[in-house]
Specification:
Helix content: over 70%
Order of helices and strands: HHHH
Shape: flat
Number of helices: 4
Radius of gyration: 29 Å
Oligomer: single chain
Distance between the termini: 89 Å
Structural class: mainly alpha
Length: 154
């Protein structure tokens, strides 16, 4: 009896984890990964890559919505082919169109945000560039002066 309980307690968390992960679609898991990437983004390059990803995602979602709209038009033109399942098909396709349009809108907003952050970071990089160059130049002058002084000491 005790070993059965031990096995159950060992297997049940693993089973719950498998069931929980099975419910996530590939798009949801990818979005979760991108949210983590967005939280860790610090440089211009990070935000630029995220902005490009969200731009592409928005385009994909718009293309899928257009595809569903075309199939909905096909249904409207030939609804008599679909029989009883026609109404289910129509409502399901309409829901998919809404989902894809909302996803495209959300991705577009994320892309706009990351483009703005990337542009701001790029401005800061360029603003700091001359100061860094001057600092590097002065460090080089100091090194040259030290080398020339050390040659005179001998």
């Amino acid at each position: 009896m005790n070993t059965k309980l031990g096995k159950y307690l060992l297997v049940s968390p693993i089973l719950f984890l498998v069931v929980a992960c099975a419910g996530l679609s590939p798009l949801e898991t990818q979005n979760a990964d991108n949210k983590i990437s967005a939280q860790n983004a610090k440089t211009y390059s990070d935000h630029d890559n995220l902005a490009n990803y969200y731009d592409n995602l928005a385009k994909e979602m718009i293309a899928k919505a257009e595809e569903k709209k075309e199939s909905l038009e096909e249904y409207d033109d030939h609804s008599y082919y679909y029989g009883r399942q026609g109404q289910d098909f129509k409502s399901h396709t309409t829901a998919n169109i809404r989902y894809y349009e909302e996803a495209a809108k959300e991705a577009s907003q994320q892309a706009t945000f990351h483009h703005k952050v990337a542009a701001e970071l790029l401005k800061r990089e360029y603003a700091n560039k001359p100061a860094e160059s001057l600092e590097q130049l002065s460090n080089q002058k100091i090194k040259v002066k030290l080398k020339s002084d050390s040659n005179n000491a001998y």
